[in-house]
Design goal:
Elements (H helix, E strand, L loop, with lengths): L1 H30 L3 H28 L2 H16 L8 H5 L7 H12 L1 H8 L1 H9 L12 H21 L5 H34 L2 H22 L2 H29 L7 H14 L8 H21 L5 H25 L7 H26 L5 H5 L1
Helix pairs in contact: 1-2, 1-7, 1-8, 1-9, 2-5, 2-6, 2-7, 2-15, 3-6, 3-9, 7-9, 8-12, 9-10, 11-12, 11-14, 11-15, 12-14, 13-14
Length: 382
């Protein structure tokens, strides 16, 4: 069962991070490939991820396992109507000189990738919640599955430019992605069926299982406010906000002030994902005490470089900023892993950290450029 859920989460996350550069390659040439355009794409995908997590939290609290499986499969089926992904000629023609590029890009992303991305985004926390109700020996602490999910994201992100972009045309990539989507839907059905069978076997029948599951979720929803304080939610929000803002800040700073290197944005995002893989794994690979000690030193090194405006040697400057991003992501995400709640509150936990990540993206891509006359979002996050 663990292998089934891990493989499903791995595939879902891989599809999420495969579609992002694929859609960006379809749309960005129409607007230019500057950092601001990519940051806008990142904000959109973070917002859709947040929406998917909110949906997963809602259905896991309000519905029984049986209805959760049925509703999620209906959502996946509806999203499949927009496949395969592609840019229509009508959409291209709507980008006129009078059109606002920012709003056009958001509209195009919502139309082309929004439905399928939303459906897959809700899959991650929903499947982890289902696994926590299976009675498996690891069900009480299913957060290790989040590590498998982020590993899928990381491998997809790194593998796309090497294995897919250089060998397949966009149309072929879209068709292959669609095949992966249908394979994911099938795996989700298997996961849902396994959880449903477990509930039936332990509740004496289908109707009793549904009622028992509904009572469990309702009782857990009633306990949520009593256990998770507002202060705890704010901590989750802050620990998710900082790495998200830093990741986008590092990307913009290196691309605009240091060197314009193709696909440089992949490295900060990979570091961001890698930190999740490492801190939510079943074994802690790097001691947090070392990271807490190294983080202030890394911040001083970055601050010194920014103040002195040194740009050479380029490899050293880039390495300093990427190392600091790694340390900051490990420390902040490590705190999230330490403070993760009981599996009863799993979907609420993921919602709040997704909200923090979305706020980080909004701050960098939307708020800061309109509030400040200079690039202050990166130093502020440091």
């Amino acid at each position: 069962m663990t292998a089934l859920f891990s493989a499903t989460l791995f595939l879902g996350a891989a599809l999420l991070f495969w579609v992002q550069p694929m859609i960006a390659k379809m749309l960005l040439p129409l607007l230019g490939g500057g950092p601001s355009v990519w940051n806008t794409c990142m904000v959109f995908f973070q917002a859709m991820l947040l929406g998917g997590y909110a949906y997963a939290h809602f259905v896991s609290v309000r519905l029984s396992i049986r209805w959760q499986v049925m509703m999620h499969f209906c959502l996946l089926s509806l999203a499949a109507l927009a496949l395969p992904l592609g840019i229509s000629e009508k959409l291209v023609q709507s980008l006129t000189p009078e059109a606002n590029p920012f709003w056009w890009l958001l509209g195009a992303l919502l139309l082309v990738a929004g439905p399928s991305f939303f459906a897959i985004a809700g899959t991650g926390p929903l499947l982890q919640k289902w696994f926590s109700n299976t009675g498996h020996v690891l069900a009480k602490d299913p957060y290790f599955l989040y590590s498998a999910s982020n590993l899928g994201s990381l491998i997809s992100l790194l593998g796309y430019p090497v294995l897919l972009e250089s060998h397949l045309r966009l149309r072929e990539q879209s068709l292959l992605w669609t095949s992966g989507y249908f394979a994911l839907a099938l795996l989700i059905l298997f996961c849902g069926a396994s959880v449903w069978r477990f509930h039936q076997s332990h509740a004496g029948g289908g109707n009793n299982a549904s009622r028992q599951a509904g009572q469990d979720t309702s009782a857990r929803a009633m306990d949520r406010r009593e256990i998770i304080s507002g202060r705890q939610r704010l901590r989750w929000l802050a620990f998710a906000f900082v790495p998200s803002s830093l990741m986008l800040g590092v990307t913009s700073y290196l691309a605009t002030d240091i060197a314009s290197i193709p696909l440089l944005w992949i490295v900060p995002l990979s570091i961001y994902l890698l930190s999740f893989v490492l801190v939510f794994g079943r074994r802690r690979m790097l001691p947090m005490s070392w990271l807490n000690w190294l983080l202030p030193m890394g911040a001083l090194g970055v601050a010194f470089q920014i103040l002195t405006r040194g740009t050479h040697p380029i490899w050293l400057v880039i390495s300093i900023h990427l190392l600091f991003l790694f340390l900051a992501s490990m420390v902040c995400h490590g705190r999230l892993a330490v403070e993760r709640p009981d599996a009863v509150h799993l979907t609420a936990f993921y919602f709040w950290i997704s909200l923090g990540g979305a706020f980080g993206g909004i701050f960098n891509a939307l708020a800061a450029p309109n509030l400040f006359s200079t690039v202050i979002e990166y130093p502020a996050a440091i």
